[in-house]
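Box 3.1 A note on notation
Throughout this textbook, protein chains are presented in two layers. The first layer is the amino acid sequence; the second is a token string describing backbone geometry. Keep the layers aligned when reading.
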Amino acid sequence: MTISTTTPMPVIPPYATMLGFTRYVSRTGPAKATFVGGLRRQRERRSGFNPHGQLVKALKADIAFRTGGSYLGGVVDVVKDRWKPLYEALRAGARTYLASLGDPERVDLAQTRDAIATVGPLAVKINPHFGLRYADGRREAVRLHFDEEPPSAEAATAMLHLMARHMDQILPNAEPVLVDLRRGVAHRIDGAARPADVESWLAGEAAAFTAMWAATAAPAA
């Protein structure tokens, strides 16, 4: 007698990085479900690669060592050929942003910490790229946007709100900043936005995300 056994598939709870969740809220219609399905498959395979790591290191080095863009100037030469066009497209905007910080002697890097946000039923990892501390006492927690298209209004609102919501963990007393690196433009929270309205909107988006995440795990009939 042969006994057939099956190993149940592990349950993967719904989860998103801040980047994944804010990209999701920018989408509409069926594209939302397709995007969530892709995120779940990445999570199952534990796949993912960050092509921007060397650029972030170069920008942080120029801030820390007050070198005025020399690290950004040389970073294209140290990455693999396949990434050179990307780095060349980002470098000019990164230099523009670096110059916008003002006198290099009056700004330093500050250590940030990641946080896990609960948005409705969804866990979202909040992970700025770095922090800044200015000589006048101001602090900023900075998240970089690398895409060809500028961040959508929805993505910027969600990202800035989520960082502000957990700033006591990320970098106390800091202002959240989203930097569109290709254009060297910094985005900050819209003072006219009502946090309660943003929170309600995000909770609804998170509930829909969670439902789509569960649906992608359902076996085909």
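The chain has two domains: 50-105, 106-216. Residues 113 and 170 are 5 Å apart (CA to CA).
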